[in-house]
Design a protein that fits this description.
This protein is α/β, with parallel strands linked by helices. It is built from 15 helices and five strands. The protein folds into two domains: about 130 residues, Response regulator (Rossmann fold, 3-Layer(aba) Sandwich), CATH 3.40.50.2300; about 200 residues, Hypothetical protein af1432 (Orthogonal Bundle), CATH 1.10.3210.10. Helix 7 packs across helix 11.
């Protein structure tokens, strides 16, 4: 146990140091100048402080007030040594954070008795602090493990959905990365951007509830079939929303809202404007961009330039104008992701698409590479 002793009288300081040395497991830290104490902080480590009241430059109250400015010393027990019995002095010391007083001349027996009590108190405080730190580390570890499980669940569910429609596998990964880039350009916090990247690949999870005859149809859907297809939004939300995981709840929000339109003409609930969750507005853009720029059995791929123009034209009608602005800002990052995740030709042979079919205009390509 390290006991800080501060007294400008070197005889008194030596005397108190000898008394501390007689206490089992205690080490005195001697300072005859309060300025030296402050100079040594915050590297100085002590468990208990014993400070003389009457000193030059800083008196005891002033010194303790300065010490308390450092977070690491705020709960350290401090005793004042004073020959002054004035209640105003004692109140000032108590207000500064002192917990006890010793009156000069200091009685060796009284000093050692009080130090033993304070050593027991400081020891209990240190053990409590160690336990609190242990608990903090354990909670942090548990939260990390829980988060890893949540991410694994999302990954497994996304893979499960891709078994029904193989085209969704790469699509969902790209939508997650595009959504993260747009969210970051929008100015959202780092944690939320990461959450959107993790949750957005599940935007189409509800397609597992759509009959294959509709989901895998090559031609144009009938009005009734399109109404059936629209149900994937509410089905996806129903699959995810009862989870206690905030990440899966975000995924449910995205699944429900990513086909809503800024003008209220979307589905399933025809919600408009800012009433659409921001996560859904962002993923709607990412989903639309990827759907247009990749070839499918029922359509050829659009060029990036065509797609960007299409999205900009629909700012304020289909898409949130602020999200479109963030999308434009994020285009270099989106292009980089696009180049890194072009679908392998063998996986899209039915669509007669090769990597060279993806047209990336030069003004974006330079920044993407």
């Amino acid at each position: 146990m390290r006991i800080l002793l501060v007294d400008d009288n070197k005889t008194n300081l030596t005397f108190l140091g000898k008394l501390v040395e007689k206490l089992t497991g205690c080490q005195p830290l001697l300072f005859d100048n309060p300025v030296d104490v402050l100079t040594a902080m915050p590297a100085l480590d002590f468990d208990i402080g014993v400070i003389d009241f009457q000193m030059p430059t800083y008196n005891g109250v002033e010194l303790l007030s300065e010490i308390r400015h450092f977070e690491k010393y705020r709960n350290k027990p401090v005793v004042f040594v004073t020959a002054d019995g004035d209640s105003a002095v004692r109140m000032a010391a108590l207000n500064a954070g002192a917990i006890d007083f010793l009156t000069k001349p200091v009685s060796p027996l009284e000093f050692q008795a009080r130090m033993r009590n304070l050593v027991a108190l400081a020891d209990a405080q240190n053990k409590l602090a160690d336990k609190a730190e242990w608990l903090r580390v354990e909670v942090e570890k548990a939260v990390f493990e829980l988060r890893a499980r949540e991410e694994e669940i999302i990954d497994r569910l996304t893979i499960a959905a891709s078994y029904k429609d193989a085209e969704t596998a790469k699509h969902t990964k790209r939508v997650g990365l595009y959504s993260e880039a747009i969210a970051r350009a929008y100015g959202l916090g780092e944690n939320l951007c990461n959450d959107i990247r993790l949750a957005s690949p599940m935007h189409d999870i509800g397609k597992v509830a759509i009959p294959d005859a509709v989901l895998l149809k090559k031609g144009k859907l009938t009005e009734q079939e399109f109404a059936t297809m629209q149900q994937h939004t509410t089905a996806g939300c129903d699959i995810l929303r009862e989870s206690n995981s905030s990440l899966l709840q975000l995924a449910a929000e995205i699944a429900r809202s990513h086909h809503e339109r800024w003008d209220g003409q979307g589905y399933p609930f025809r919600v408009a404007g800012a009433a659409i969750p921001l996560s859904g507005r962002i993923v709607a853009l990412a989903d639309n961009f990827d759907a247009l720029t990749t070839a499918r059995p029922y359509k050829p791929a659009w060029s990036v330039e065509q797609t960007v123009a299409h999205i900009k034209e629909r700012a304020g009608s289909q898409f949130d104008p602020s999200c479109v602005a963030a999308f434009e800002k994020a285009l270099p990052s989106i292009m980089k992701t696009m180049l890194e995740n072009i679908e392998h030709p063998t996986l899209v042979a039915k669509a007669d698409m090769t990597p060279s079919n993806v047209t990336i205009p030069g003004k974006y390509l330079a920044e993407a590479i």
